[in-house]
Amino acid sequence: MILELFVSTCLFAGPPPHAQAHGRGGAKAEGVPPGLAKKPGGLPPGLAKKFGRRLPERPYVALDPNRMDRAWFLIGGQWQLKTGLSLQVQAEIRDALRLPLAPPPIPLPKVGIDLHVVAF
Q: Nearest Cα to 50, choosing from 96, 83, 98?
C-alpha cells in the first residue's frame, strides 16, 4: 500500500520547478527580456548593432513607448535617432520597455513626448 501511494504521488506530481521551460529564450517569469536571459546585464544584439563598431561602456537608449520603429541612442555624447528598425530590434525595444528607467547623463532630445531611458 505504501508503494502504491508513492508511485501515484510520483506520477501526478509533475516535473520539478527548475525543469520547466520559461518561455521564449529561456527568460524567467521575472520579466527579463529574452535577449538578456543568456547574458544578464548585457545589451540585446540588435540594439548593440545600432551603436556602431564601438559599444559604449554604459549604453543608453531612449525609447518612445508608442513607437517601436525608432529609438534614440546616446553615441559620442549626443542622442542620435535611428528609424526604420527591423522587427527583431522592435521586439528588443518592446522587451527593453519592461526595464527600469535610468537617468540620462545628458538632457534628452526635445521631441514632445516622455521617452523611456534604459541603461544597459
A: 83
